[in-house]
Amino acid sequence: MSPGETGVIAGFTDELISIKLLEMGFLPGTAVRYNFKAPLGDPICVSVSGYDVSLRLEEASTISIVN
Amino acid sequence: MAADSKMKIALVGKPNSGKSSLFNRLTGLNQKIGNFPGVTVDKRTGYCQLEGGISSEIIDLPGTYSLYPRTLDEKVVAEVFADDRGSFYPEKVVLVADATNLKNCFLLLTQLIDLGLPTILALNMVDLAAKSGQSINIKNLEKELDLPVVMINARNGMGIDQLRLLLSRPLKPSRKLIYQPELEIKPLVDQIKKKFNLQADYRAYQFLQQAENLVFLPEQERHYIRTLAKENNFFSHKYQGAETVKRYGFIQDLLNKVVIRSSNEGWKKVSYGIDKVLTHKVWGYVIFFVALFLIFQSIFAWAQIPMDFIDRTFARLSSQLDDFFPEGPFFELLSHGIIPGIGGIVIFIPQIAILFAFISVFEETGYMSRVVFLMDKIMRKFGLNGKSVVPLMSGWACAIPAIMATRTIENWKDRLITIFVTPFMSCSARLPVFTILVALIIPDTKIFGFFNYQGLVLMGLYLLGFLAAILSAFAMKLIIKARERSYLIMEMPTYKMPKWSNVGFQIIEKTKAFVFEAGKIILAISIILYVLSSYGPADVMNAAKETVRKEVAAQHLSEEQIQNRIASYKLENSYAGRLGKTLEPLIKPLGYDWKIGIALVTSFAAREVFVGTIATIYSIGSTDDQATIKERLKSEVDPDTGKPRYTLAVGLSLLVFYTFAMQCMSTLAVVKRETKSWRWPLLQLAYMSTLAYFSALVVYQVLK
């Protein structure tokens, strides 16, 4: 995904991280919007479940997205 | 029993939900900060008078998204709620929810309901929600959740009276059951429920999930739960994930029923606009460095005024007591040991207060999470974390609150490295030492008529400390093995104006932490040092007056000068003085003599003592006048060479030594408490002292 794009969460590839992500409102079927990235490209800021979250690319890459 | 009859009310909610504002609203100044037993997390409690003369004790629990803890702070929440017979277990709970973002506030709410806790839902920031085009059907929400809901505005106090009224009335737990443990683990849950005589299924399920956090149970019972879980193949992660998904399913259905939404998200756009600037590739960093510069400026320039005042006041108090009391060991201890000891603590308050005012404003406005966002990638390269920025910055004022601020870092390794390197950040106690030495060896001239040499050297020392911190962090990153994976999943709150009373409360809280945590130790050490440097072998000390008077008889000195000479002679022959002399062979390669040795000994526990010791050794009498100390140090001659003692090489070697050395007993004590072992503070002491010694050695040998 690139900044400004929106996608829908399909699932997760990492169980441990997925628990944290679920708690923060990253639920399968929810829309996420990639807002912008930090100046050095990592971490990134996304909108999910009505608010903004920052996460590292490493964590973001464990989220499977359907566009 | 009178104190225990107070009704216990806990405030919970996610971070940034306005929980602290509500706490301050309810309790006013009637609050205290303590510790939860066994852990180092601040326990904020306060008292509140409710309708009908009921008095209540309010506990402000750390912000959390769910009962499953990620940080030390959050662990406390899980522990408090797990132990339904514990002394902190609340009779009522107020869940503070951010109305602009109900979804992830409700996760914890549904868990509390399942635990069977009588809960009131306080909806905060309803005005902001309304602006974003969201309205909430309160009546429906109350019905769906089977608990009372109250709309509040913690910032202006709206709805607080209604909340007080609700709290004074009897409150039943909600009859809703939102999450039932999966069928296949039902027998397991029942077994635990029976064994521990628990009411709710979900509580038994939490025992299974978090056996390691049930500190109130004896180890054998925790072991029992762990074995039971293992034997029955209870995979906690799998169930946790499933639980969260089910809860959010319920929450989504609920929100569909009670929230009326229009698509207007106008107020959010303002936040994005600000973010475009504050997290811009260039401007983001420029603004951050300007902010840092402002903090520096205020710590050095503005804090100087109250600090000078405190310094003068305590010096005057000391000398007045001297005149007032008769001579005697006790009164001398009071006026030369205890009073200056307390003064030595109070003097740091202005800098600490100013620094935390800035940090608190950054946090209140939401800027701090942008700083974490900006710095995370850079910090990660050095084994740190974006969240390490706050502790490192706080380190410029004082390492003690800085190390306590590392509790928000989830990852153990990141947190440990941050704790380990924070004392390298030049704290305010180093400043008096730096100031006097820089003034002594660096000419007060300007380059290009603009930059002051002395200022540049001072800045260089701060930079040196910072470099030592991040390079050491980098080395530790390679050495220490990670226990768990590092991650950064953090909410980016929308920008808000800071609420000034919250800023004020935070300043008071941090200053208190410093005064009581560090204060005790600094005071104790200064008394010990006083004793060590005023007492020595009895025969020499008793004869001190005669010996000195004999020596100076021919010199026609004034009475004051003679007194100063006596003080100096006494220090030289005291236990501390003897230790300094014994050290001489060890510190000679660094360019120091035994006099500096004594100062090193006395500043071992608290580095700022250096200036006072130097003043006594050189018989200056008082430390009030920096110019006198400077003049005296300048005229000090090295008896071996006949040249001035404080050459550029010696001065720089001392400066480097003080930049790196771990000369702060209070910091070591706090590190021990935070890491729960002596291993880390001792390693820190050994590492920093070695680094200080060898760097000073190299500096002196190269420059001499």
Shape of chain B: elongated
Total E-strand runs of chain B: 12
How many strands of chain A?
Answer: 5
What is the helix fraction of residues of chain B, given as a range? 55-70%
Q: How many whole angstroms does the radius of gyration of chain B measure?
A: 30 Å
Strand residue content of chain A: 35-45%
User: How is the quaternary structure best described?
Assistant: heterodimer
Strand order of the largest sheet of chain A: 4-3-2-1-5
| Backbone structural class of chain A | alpha+beta
Explain this structure.
The complex is a heterodimer of chains A (67) and B (704). Chain A has one domain: Ferrous iron transport protein A (FeoA) (SH3 type barrels). In chain A, strands 4-3-2-1-5 form a five-stranded antiparallel sheet. Helix content of chain A is 19%, strand content 42%. Chain A is α+β, with helices and mostly antiparallel strands and 67 residues long. Chain A is built from two helices and five strands. The model of chain A has no long low-confidence stretch (mean pLDDT 85). About 1% of the residues of chain B have low confidence. The radius of gyration of chain B is 30 Å and the shape is elongated. Chain B is 61% helix and 8% strand. In chain B, the strands form three sheets. A seven-stranded mixed sheet of chain B has the order 2-3-4-1-5-6-8, with helices on both faces. A two-stranded antiparallel sheet of chain B has the order 7-9. In chain B, strands 10-11 form a two-stranded antiparallel ribbon. Chain B contains 32 helices and twelve strands. Among the domains of chain B are: 162 residues, P-loop containing nucleotide triphosphate hydrolases (Rossmann fold, 3-Layer(aba) Sandwich); 79 residues, no CATH class; 178 residues, no CATH class. At the A-B interface, helix 1 and strand 4 of A face helix 3, helix 10, helix 11, helix 16 and strand 12 of B.
